[in-house]
């Protein structure tokens, strides 16, 4: 984006005031430049984010100047004055500055002397006039009036000018809401609607400006070849009926030469273009004044431009000088040149003449009857024609006779099929150019006053000129002359030139130079607009166009602009190029109105425009008019333009750099999120809308990296990008001391979430204890109705290492594909249907899509297993879930010796830990050692009553001893014999024996049926209600899941999450 240079005005009195405050001079820049360079800059951070250089002292300068900051009135803030400047020092450097628009250095030097003093007239009004008035006024407005009539022409002008007026109101509100640098409309849209909309519309505006240069060049070449030097044509038509192709080829050749010459001028130096701008503007004004002067003069002395009519058909006044069939030479009647065009030369016989020529008379009428002639009544209504039709005047007598096709070249015909919508697309470019004032905001003395006043006055002036010109043309010029696009009926004169005073050459020369000037302005502005977009770094493939010559001239952007403009030149038709750029400009204006409407409705705190005469309804009306005009003028061009903008938008969204510009779309998202959260707060979601909103609890290693990233893999497979996902973690310590670690942990988790393609939020808390942090996460995560309803966590590797390995380390990656296998669901107790819903959601992911789903349920002795299977199949059918159903019968059996002994060892371990009175951490280490010694048994021992001893070497456990622990250990040693006798006489609790028996039997059945399953989902038993049973609970889970590769324990809250109803 464009750079600003903030040039403070050195105030001697202010310097004295600073010295009284104890500050001689404050360097607001953090650039490392010489401190005596009294210039502050507003620069770009290299990523397109404009930022004002830090208005604080660097740490290096702070040490040397800390003593200068001392002030008895500011002693309370003296410790932070090295990073926070005084208000007086800040304001003295920022209150007086000027913003110089981006461009070549020579352009900045050219403008810098006068730019701060530009007022409304020179800075906004006249540049807007120069950009709005263009080639359409001189070359096509008379033709539009002739085809559409005065009434419809006025409607076209009012529609187009109303659209630009409403856009100017919205633009004025945006432009007065802060400084708008070079880039104009692009900067306003991108900072108001975000980088996606800004980049898409900015490129459309760039393409519109580029095609505008092509249109102006084609207009200038048309004037050159048709009216200035017709002899310069290189290609000549061999077939008179196909003369258009020769004209188009001439336009392509001379247009390419003119484009190359203009590109060289722009490349050599912009200052030459700026110097010639006043001359070009003078040509426009003189040409318009000559039209009004000629119209006034025509009241009494209309110009003499006779038109030759054959019957009611208009003849080309080319190749003959007398509008008659015969002429008198002395007393002798001779054949005229016109006779020779319709008959064989020198033959007086009528048998060798065209029938229409013989049966119709030749008459001569005035082409410019004048303002007082009353011709306005004939030109009031439209007369749309098809391509190839001959221009005819209503009211003249004509005999309908056959005319040979070879004589059609003698008549003035229509070269393009006309319609109201086509004329709208051709005229609209003559209403564009309203952004000239906002593009020069840095050159204005008071931009926030000059831009609205100058732009609205310029649009008002041009609208009055267009409306009055439509009425004058329809009141002064004959209808067939108006419909004659190239002036063939008036001796190949420019039609609007026939009305001008004192000579048609005023309009011809003035319009030629004005179109050349407008083309140069477009070729100058388009590359800088592309350079501004490229420097914002929102579209990666455009980065090369952000570079240029050493003086800042956008060389590469100019080259691309020339190539795109050459495409418009190759079209070679002004009437075909005009609708193209109309689409791009209309899309740009549409989003300017949208930006103003969004900002107004959101009422963001920073939306404080000085221009008060705006309203969101006017912006929406302008936006609607832009959209309507796009489809009115050319619906297929509109679809193409919107398609181009849509593709650019999606490209920036997926590939472009992320920007935070405080745009309205972000504000709109916040408002929509607030509205949605308030709606969700009304009540819990219906069962049909329930989906798991995950809180994933992760553990970080010592380097603050995610220890088990496959937890995120599972979350992404379960969610498939839908619903809420919150990834949380806990850092143990003090918040003030661990703040940096917390930020690093959040970034590490976000990076891992991006790798695993998990869309969600990250929250890391700092707590004195990990358990307290987890409790805080579970209680406080989420907002309103967007709170988690499902917690996903892995077992602590100290307490239960096997489950951690079984699940998190063996979870399939997102790029893996299971081509076969089963997902087994063991439905033991009803938990609200979550056990059914989770495998269905997993199967939506590509990893699990081809796995089959099997549902097992357990039948007791008094259950009818056959009926249970039928009922379960019916239930699944109503749930629309495809799965195999199997009912497993579990018969009552005696408790095995293995079950009894394992329960006994579990309780002995717990009793021993209580007797040792270890701390919580030491208790966990000791529990792990005891578990490792007794849990690693062969699978065969699960089904036998005999115990096989397995020797497992004990790991050394390092403990930290204190004085209290030492005394407690001595007491424990003195009571060791008694404690040992208690352990040996301990009998297991019958409740624990029953629980262990259930775990062993269920594990036996599950391993038998699901040992080869890809994933096993199982009801998780309820946790103990007292803390004393923690170790026993983990032992039960260990036994329940032994021998299984991949297990997911699920425990629902009891609320129904799946329904059979639609």
TrEMBL record:
Taxonomic lineage: Eukaryota, Metazoa, Chordata, Craniata, Vertebrata
Q: Where's the Amino acid permease/ SLC12A domain?
A: 124-296, 401-695
**Positions of transmembrane segments:** 197-218, 251-270, 277-296, 416-436, 456-482, 502-520, 556-574, 580-602, 614-638
Keywords noted in UniProt: Cell membrane, Chloride, Glycoprotein, Ion transport, Membrane, Phosphoprotein, Potassium, Potassium transport, Symport, Transmembrane, Transmembrane helix, Transport
Q: A single GO CC term, please?
A: plasma membrane
According to the entry, every stretch annotated as the SLC12A transporter C-terminal domain falls at: 709-795, 818-1062
Q: Which Pfam families match?
A: AA_permease, SLC12
Q: Give the molecular function GO annotations.
A: potassium:chloride symporter activity
Q: Where in the cell is it found?
A: Cell membrane
Give the matching NCBIfam families: 2a30
The family note in this entry says: Belongs to the SLC12A transporter family. K/Cl co-transporter subfamily.
Which topology term describes how it sits in the membrane? Answer: Multi-pass membrane protein
- This chain belongs to which protein, by name? Solute carrier family 12 member 4
